[in-house]
Design brief:
Blueprint (H helix, E strand, L loop, with lengths): L11 H102 L4 E8 L4 E7 L2 H13 L3 E14 L2 E12 L5 H16 L1
Antiparallel strand pairs: 1-2, 2-4, 3-4
């Protein structure tokens, strides 16, 4: 009886090869994951850096715009201050001119109301009332002076404050003090009412 010989197969090299292939696959997967993570980190870094650079550029542009606006605001404030100063000076000039014209107009009205034989020594303006110090030949001419002032459109509430006898160069005269309100400080209604009241008092 013939017996066939046994065939022996060594499985160790095959197992070792399979283990190596498996290890290589694991290393490849790990390397791929590692490279993916590296690529992701680099991409995030680049995107973040780009975004950060853009934000820095925008901030610098905003700061420059802010400085430019501040310079413009400073110029506008200087212009406003200059305009306010000019307007204030023009207001002072207008006030001075108005006061000058007012005084000239009232002095002209007084000179036109002075009758003969009345002499004005001084005129005082306190802003609300005019006061006249003078001399007259008689009570009648002083009364005529008051009537002329009373009839003038430039004055209201003409009042005789003082009248007394005096002597100048041996001539007897009447020294008097009058006061009145300029019409720019009294409305026409007030002027008419005051003049009528003053005339009623004189008739009494």
């Amino acid at each position: 009886m013939n017996v066939s010989p046994l065939i022996r197969i060594n499985l160790l090299p095959y197992r070792e090869l399979r283990w190596r292939l498996k290890l290589l696959k694991m290393v490849s997967v790990a390397a791929a994951v590692f490279l993916s993570v590296v690529v992701l980190i680099v991409t995030v870094h680049l995107v973040t850096r780009s975004h950060l650079d853009r934000l820095v550029a925008e901030e610098q542009a905003l700061q420059e715009e802010n400085r430019r606006l501040k310079r413009k605001i400073g110029k506008i404030r200087n212009i406003d201050k200059l305009r306010a100063d000019v307007e204030a000076k023009l207001g002072v000039i207008d006030t001075l001119q108005e006061g000058r014209f007012r005084t000239l107009r009232l002095l002209l009205a007084i000179s036109q109301a002075i009758p003969e034989n009345v002499w004005v020594d001084s005129i005082r303006d306190d802003g609300k009332r005019f006061s006249i110090h003078g001399r007259g030949e008689s009570n009648n001419v002083v009364a005529e002076f008051m009537r002329q002032l009373d009839a003038s459109p430039s004055f209201a509430n003409v009042r005789l404050d003082v009248i007394r006898r005096s002597e100048v160069g041996g001539v007897r005269v009447r020294s008097f003090e009058l006061s009145m309100e300029p019409v720019d400080l009294a409305t026409p209604t007030e002027k008419g009412g005051r003049n009528r009241e003053h005339r009623r008092r004189r008739r009494r």
